[in-house]
Amino acid sequence: MIGLIRAELTKFRSVRGWLIGCGIAAVLMVLLAVVAAAGTDARVGGPGARGALPRASDGTPVLDGFTFLQQPLDGDGTLTVRVPSLTGVALRPPTPGDSVPDEQEQATPEPWAKAGLIIKAGTTSGSAYTAVMVTGSHGVRMQHDFIHDLAGPTDARWLRLVRSGGTVTAYASSDGAAWTTVGSAPLATGAMSAGIFVATPPHQEYEQFLGGTSVIGGGAIATGTFDNLTAAGIGAGGDWNLVSVGADDSPNRPESTSTRNGDTFVLRGGGDIAPVDGGTGPKLEQLLSGGFMALTVLAVLGVLFVTTEFRRGMVRTTFAATPSRVRVLAAKSVVLGAVTFAVGLVASTAALLVGTAIRGSNHYPADALTQVRIVVGTAALIAVATVLALAIGTILRRGAGAVAAVVVLITLPYILSAAAVLPAATADWVLRITPAAAFAVQQTVPEWPQVDQAYTPAFGFFPLPAWGGFAVLCGWTAVALVIAAALLRRRDA
């Protein structure tokens, strides 16, 4: 088998056009990385850019702006409150010449509007926190470190946070007597700020149409009503202080206000505490957008690697030297997969390095493991897709038909789905059942349950996890190879 692999590698190396094709595939990936990096919205370097945003513990860029009525908490303590009301107001975008948006009619709050209790390591944007809250339409939630979200009762209005040492535990109740534990989270010891808060994400509507997507909407204001507020171990009997966390980073955010009538507090303001919506911003995988073009070029080579021998009759010599046709197919698959994996790995690495050098790595938030995964995953995607092309070429024995089949199975579904040509529901299924599902290995932006977003292929989200999508491609390739092997054994050379 080693000798057979060496012979097939020699065949591949002896055709200058195939080597040039490998080079073209690599160059295309790097050139499109340059285009993607240079074409990134220039505003990403301005105020509010991802590179300037605070980060969660895993490096995720986050938003941290809210209306906070607080007192100092130096040690252990307990906060309890009832949230009888949470309402919302949508804001129209500012009219030309007017920097202040107009309020629309009173509306239900945004689904992820929040009003509740929070213990936070100071009032600096990005500092650690643990909170329990009533939301617009997702019931009670406990959230901490921006990226962690736990569901609580759907109908509770009483909330409680208990800090004991380095742990904060959240509770919820529907009557203020029987309490349900929502969850616990670590939070450093030392001086903290604790109190009630309100926040709301902006109102956004996502639209997908033939050839594109759009996001429309505007800001929002949430108003939370609180009563029965008790605080043990917090402050020293002093006044509650209003702080607009993150207001300096969002100059157009609505003003935070607080009013008190007896034991009832009303907080009003905008801002949000959540991971950044990743669907509409720059994404690291955009630097690897040339992967589908490199795949197409190398898939053509995969087809030609076998159909050229059939067309010229050279396959008879190959089968005469090695009667086991399945071994010949296996050797071709090994050689082609190894060569294209190497090309894909070099091209993906170069594209990532060049793209981040042009725009800056801080604009493409992703940890080292994620970067390795998308680079290696892209190389593996290209290699397996090229072997699939080889199998299809073996089945059809005609170069044009095999190339067309590869394009229809892999490239076309990806383009139609990512470019929003297909309806969102159709694109979702296409990227579940076709070999194009493997492009999920390039997704870097997570789907946050606590962030409203159109999680569709047009916004860069795939229906299957990274290696789940890759497994679909492997399944197609395995089936095609089995069929190709069976036909090789039955047909005459």
Supply the helix-strand structural class: alpha+beta
- Uncertain runs are 41-48
Please give the largest β-sheet.
Answer: 8 strands, antiparallel
Total number of distinct structural domains: 2
SSE succession: HHEEEEEEEEEEEEEEEEEEEHHHHHHH
**How far is the N terminus from the C terminus?**
21 Å
Annotation, overall tally of beta strands = 19
Shape type: elongated
| Radius of gyration over all CA atoms, rounded | 29 Å
Strand content: 25-35%
Tell me, rounded to a whole number, the average pLDDT. 84
Helicity, as a percent range: 25-40%
Number of helices: 9
List keywords for this structure.
single chain, 493 residues, alpha+beta, Jelly Rolls, 2 domains, 37% helix
Would you give an account of this structure?
The protein is of the alpha+beta class. The chain has 2 domains: 2-43 and 281-490, no CATH class; 55-275, Sandwich (Jelly Rolls). The protein contains 9 helices and 19 strands. It has helices at 2-14, 16-38, 291-312, 315-321, 325-359, 368-396, 399-418, 424-433, 466-490; strands at residues 62-64, 66-73, 77-91, 103-107, 114-120, 129-135, 140-144, 148-151, 158-164, 167-173, 180-186, 192-199, 203-209, 212-218, 220-232, 241-245, 257-261, 264-269, 273-275. A hairpin with an 8-residue loop joins strand 5 and strand 6 (129-135). The chain crosses the membrane at residues 287-308, 329-354, 374-396, 403-425, 466-488. It comes from Asanoa ishikariensis.
